[in-house]
Structures are given as structure tokens and as C-alpha cells.
Recover the amino acids of this structure.
């Protein structure tokens, strides 16, 4: 017997022992897969959760959705590296039940940031339930697999330009890597970010709350750089990483444009790479999404991320969308012909 339920109130999920365990740190080794992450999204990012949960007595399948009305999306934001369904071991077939039951709840569902295997599994489940599906690559994820290397071996394999920069600038920049949350360092990060080339921060309150929680859990790596000859002066660069399950996640980095001649961002990155590789002994480093050129200097592999769009063909509100998709397909065929 399969039961499908929906939760708009995440406190209900927290009070369900089996479900809370599936979505907790004991089971999930990435922040984006956990109930705590979704709670922060709901609290600070004005997202309206709708967790779809299928259970059969032996396991669960969870699809963390958001929104209201007929069009649902994934429960995530710009800080989320990737989105995927969460299932108990062996409970993957429950995705079919979710896809079937969601026809009563939505006319359209759009999911972005999906890893390839998860994208294909969800696409098959929705297609099997009678949805019209569209799957396309939407982003990339840069990673580094250490394959047993220590920091010295890793840095020796970096591009010559980067190694030269580090050799020339490291003596001019002093770095500090913290494994706990420090309000003064966080204030420095926010000040640097405001002066950096980065766009306006999406939700500073969300990011700080996440950093504080990760610091309390011992997973935070918060780093700051100063000019070596002015260590009491303003910080020049700051970065936020987290470490768990053998993986280091690079969440945020920023440097002052005025300090660019010192390359404080590169020097600080090197300090963090050395720390997570030689001290934390991670096996993988994840640089999140986006194909920024500088990531290629540090990373070695690229993984695709996908966007899955599914529509109920019988819903009249979807017909204009279907018409546009059909016209685009015909135009693409004509162009190829």
C-alpha cells in the first residue's frame, strides 16, 4: 500500500521521526538534501514549501516542491548547488506514485539543477504517469576529485599562471581559516561582498543563519585574508566553505576590487584548498553551479545539470505553453533542414 501526502508546514515533517531521520544529517551528507536547509528557505527566502511524500511502510520518496496554484517548482534558491528527489534505499519506485498523484495537485512542474541520473529517473516517472516532459541541460557543476592526492601534488598540477600568481603573492597576503562562526569575520565578508564585482546578495539573512548553523555543527570553514603588512587593516577577501561526508562545498567567495593587485582571492582559495585537502582529508571539492572561467583553474571535471519541465496536456492553462513549445520545435527543425 502506497500513501502520498503533502506538507506545507515543515514542522509536521520534523515531528515525523522516520521522515526527519531520512532528511537529517545522519542520512544526508549534503546540506541541500536536508530538512534544515528547506526550513531556512521557507523562513528567509519567502518560499512556500509543498513537500510531496510517498511511503509504503518500508521507505519514503520525497520531492521538495514550492509554490502555489497550478505551477510548482523545486524548493531551492540561488544558494542551492543542485536539486534531487530524496529516497530511502530501494524506494526509488515510489517516484512513480508521486508523479501520478501530483496530477491532482498541479498542472505544471518545473525542476532545475537536477543531476543527470535524477533527471532521467524523474523524467521517466512523470512520462509514465502521462505528463508531457521536456528535459534539457541548464547549467554545469565544476568539481575536483582528489584521487588520493595531497595538496602539494594537487597544486603542482594547476595551470602555470595560477602557480606563478600564488608564488608571487602569497608572501604579501596573510590568511586565516576558521572552523567556527565568527561575527567579526562575517561582518568583514559582508563588507567585502558589498564592494566586490558580485551581484547583490540574494538573502544575507539566509546565508548568515546557514553559516551559524554549520559553524555550530563543526562543518563551517570561514576564511579571511589581510594584507601581510597591515593585518589590523580592513580584510581584503573572505570565503565560506563547508565540509562533510568527504566533500568540501565552496559556497561563497569575494574580494575587494581595490585589492586586485595582491590577488587576495586566489591566495585565500589556496589556503582553503590546502586546509580541506591536508587537514580535513576530503576526497571531493564541489564549486557549485556556473561556468565561471576562474573555476577551471581550480577544478578538473564538469558535471551537467538539467531542467525538467512537465505539463498535464489536459489542463487548458497549459495549452499556450504547449503551443509555444511546438512552434519552437518546428522552428528548430526548419533551421536544421
Amino acid at each position: 500500500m502506497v500513501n502520498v501526502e503533502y506538507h506545507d508546514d515543515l514542522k509536521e515533517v520534523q515531528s515525523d521521526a522516520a521522515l526527519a531521520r531520512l532528511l537529517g544529517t545522519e542520512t544526508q551528507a549534503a546540506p541541500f538534501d536536508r530538512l534544515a536547509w528547506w526550513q531556512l528557505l521557507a523562513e528567509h527566502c519567502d518560499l512556500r514549501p509543498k513537500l510531496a511524500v510517498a511511503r509504503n511502510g518500508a521507505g519514503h520518496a520525497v520531492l521538495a516542491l514550492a509554490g502555489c496554484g497550478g505551477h510548482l517548482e523545486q524548493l531551492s534558491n540561488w544558494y542551492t548547488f543542485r536539486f534531487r528527489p530524496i529516497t530511502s534505499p530501494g524506494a526509488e519506485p515510489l517516484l512513480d506514485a508521486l508523479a501520478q498523484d501530483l496530477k491532482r495537485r498541479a498542472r505544471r512542474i518545473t525542476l532545475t539543477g537536477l543531476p543527470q541520473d535524477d533527471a532521467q529517473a524523474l523524467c521517466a516517472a512523470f512520462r509514465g504517469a502521462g505528463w508531457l516532459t521536456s528535459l534539457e541541460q541548464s547549467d554545469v557543476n565544476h568539481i575536483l576529485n582528489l584521487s588520493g592526492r595531497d595538496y602539494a601534488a594537487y597544486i603542482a598540477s594547476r595551470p602555470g599562471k595560477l602557480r606563478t600568481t600564488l608564488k608571487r603573492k602569497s608572501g604579501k597576503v596573510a590568511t586565516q581559516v576558521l572552523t567556527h562562526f565568527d561575527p567579526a569575520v562575517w561582518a568583514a565578508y559582508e563588507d567585502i561582498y558589498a564592494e566586490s564585482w558580485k551581484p547583490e546578495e540574494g538573502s544575507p539573512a539566509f546565508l548568515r543563519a546557514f553559516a551559524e548553523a554549520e559553524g555550530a555543527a563543526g562543518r563551517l570553514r570561514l576564511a579571511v585574508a589581510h594584507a601581510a603588512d597591515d593585518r589590523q587593516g580592513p580584510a581584503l577577501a573572505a570565503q565560506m566553505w563547508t565540509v562533510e561526508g568527504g566533500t568540501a562545498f565552496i559556497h561563497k567567495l569575494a574580494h575587494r576590487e581595490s585589492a586586485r593587485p595582491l590577488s587576495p582571492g586566489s591566495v585565500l582559495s589556496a589556503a582553503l584548498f590546502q586546509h580541506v585537502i591536508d587537514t580535513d582529508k576530503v576526497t571531493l571539492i564541489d564549486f557549485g553551479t556556473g561556468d565561471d572561467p576562474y573555476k577551471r583553474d581550480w577544478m578538473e571535471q564538469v558535471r551537467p545539470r538539467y531542467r525538467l519541465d512537465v505539463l498535464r496536456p489536459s489542463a487548458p492553462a497549459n495549452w499556450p505553453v504547449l503551443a509555444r513549445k511546438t512552434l519552437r520545435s518546428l522552428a528548430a527543425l526548419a533551421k536544421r533542414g
Notes: The mean pLDDT is 95. The first strand starts at residue 3 and ends at 7. The CA atoms of residues 98 and 222 lie 39 Å apart.
